[in-house]
Amino acid sequence: TGYRPGALEALIGQDLPAHLIHGRVSAWGWEGPWANRRGFDSIVQAASGISFLAGGENPGALPAQALDHSTGYFLAAGILDALTLRSQDGRGRDVDVSLASTGARLLDAPGRTVHPGLPTAPGLNVVVNHADVTTARPALAEFEDYPEPAHPWGSDRAEWAH
Known about the structure:
Elements: H1 7-12, E1 21-26, H2 41-48, H3 50-55, H4 66-89, E2 93-98, H5 99-107, E3 127-130, E4 133-136
Parallel strand pairs: 1-2
Antiparallel strand pairs: 3-4
Helix pairs in contact: 2-5, 4-5
């Protein structure tokens, strides 16, 4: 769930089934003065200083929602651990992650480059130009880029691919 701390409990009460594994994501965590505030990746990046560190003289959000992605991986790993433990004892668990704690982990990572610069890959351009639209190259080099960026929703003809 992605509700603010306490919101789901206010709707359904505190008593969840004992076997339930409940994965929860919040912006700021479950304790502290900001626990009940709304938030999302770009806001947490700005409040934690990540956007300033990544932007240098021109602070801004990172080109990827790094906290959303990383926090999702932490949540998935926690749920897998909880499933493993439940298979042994039958008990459910809460798996709680927050964007702010992920940001703190990333900022405290050993060997982190403070101003990494633009990403590069040997022999590859990192961007592709489609007329007046510039997009990132595919993440996996063995997959070709699309011949053009995505079309507006509903503008493609429905047909079977051969």
